[in-house]
Request: fold
Amino acid sequence: MKKKLMADKVKSYLMFAGPAIFFFFAIVIIPFIYGVYLTFTNWDGISAKKELIGFANFLAVFQDKDFWSALMLTLAYVAISTVAVQVIAFLLAYLLTSGLKGQNFFRAGFFTPNLIGGIVLGFIWQFVFSKAFTAFGGMTSIPLFESSWLSDPLKAFFALVLVTVWQYSGYMMLIYVAGFVGVPKDLIEAASIDGCTNTQRTRHIVIPMMSQSFSICTFLTLTRCFMVYDLNVSLTGGEPYGSTIMAALHVYQKAFKSKKYGLGQAEALVLFVVVAVVAVTQYYLSKRKEVEA
Amino acid sequence: MAKSKTVVGGAKTKVLNAVKLIVLSLVLLLYMVPFFLILVNSFKRKITIIKHPLMLIDPKGFSVENYVSAFKEMNYLRAFGNSLIITTVSVLFIVLFASMASYYMARSKTIASRLSFSLIVAAMVIPFQTIMIPLISIYGNMFGMLNMRSTLIFMNIGFGMALAIFIYYGFIRSGVPVSLEEAAIIDGCRPYQVFFKIVFPLLKPTTATLIVLDVLWLWNDYLLPSLILGKKALYTLPLSTYTFYGTYSNDLGKIMAGLVLTILPVIAIYLLLQKQIISGVVAGAVKS
Reply:
């Protein structure tokens, strides 16, 4: 009897969860574990031979200056973009929930860049930065636009930030709009009856009530920006002089261009740990805020 | 007194709203400038684009010549077809397998079921870049499965599982009453029948959300396809755009037309299904 019950359980597990678990293990779990193994080898991607070399790859990660500068650049990019996206997205959402005519049209419009992949967005903006901006600079002689942003390391970095903020602000705006709409009407009414001004209402009721939207949006922007690859490849390609290579692009080049799979994988794991630590910290900090509110 | 106050307030709100509307319109216009520039320049000759990128219409007039050559040289139809097949088949299987698995995990209280779900949720934090190198080493070097659309679809299904199961699981737990299933079982339905006839139709809103999220992801995906599909005949739209850009980077007219062609299908769908897409994106983000 008990055996039959067990067999039934196994059967229904396989019937329903079987295919999903198979794909999930084959594509995510097994490669992840195998990836950890790869970091202890000196595999070059071609030869059949892999030698175990212990922690040499991790030592090499710490000596790879390019990796650390790419990681620092990524951190700066993530920090600036995340803050800018939240500010702009919040303001847009604020304006687009005040009952204006055609607010659905505006919401749909601002979201548009998110329908298009990073590769195509990068190419579009390459034209804007290298041709349209310079033509505009020539006409108006504003120094900021006179030479292409993409040929100067610092400006190229801010070109990446600008496109990122342009793209994600429309996305996060939608989530903030949902947050604004979700603030209970009776709370706002009560505040008005108690004599709150508009600004006071926003500061002391609406913003605290929206702390959950803030943590979702920050988390989403943070994790996406950390892993930026498509835009990096198509907008700057890491140029000028390799000054805008972000962490994900660096890992890609280490493995597939320099054929150092073990080292590349070790750097990918370090990147993963950094992202995880930052994301978890952000999560706990904002959770604490949510309770306070 | 009170009356005049409300009138003043009303006029004030009107002015304020007008200002808001103007500010928003200007910002939206600014947001749209890149698309507008690409569109305008796609109808111009190469020489006019380089000399006057901000000019609206070429002195020699409108020309669709860029489109004709971009369409041919990008192998647009083939790339579009590849993207369509890969996206559709992947999404179909993600929806099918994930909904079945989530149903089981939401209902069964066995250790295996709970363990599987926890593992899947935990794995959601693993970024693609951490898996990409071993993935290529296993499926490329060991099994020699590169350059096949089916390999890419296989991997898409694997990568799509975590989010899909997570979203379905939450919905089944909160939104699908067990009593319906019990009634169906009493009526003599077999397990698959209960799922496909009773549960799956109830999951429709979640399925719609998931389709929106997965189509946007897969249609625009670049990195994984670029690692798997090395043959031109298998290129998806983002891949063929990328190569096309590399080959003709000096012929700006063609490039502009190629970019417009790549964006066009997505914008067309967006115009039709705007509401569904936006609510899908919001639901997906808030749930995860």
Remarks:
- The CA atoms of residues 43 and 49 of chain A lie 7 Å apart.
- Chain A has a mean pLDDT of 85.
- DSSP finds 14 helices and no strands in chain A.
- Chain A touches chain B through 87 residues (CB under 8 Å).
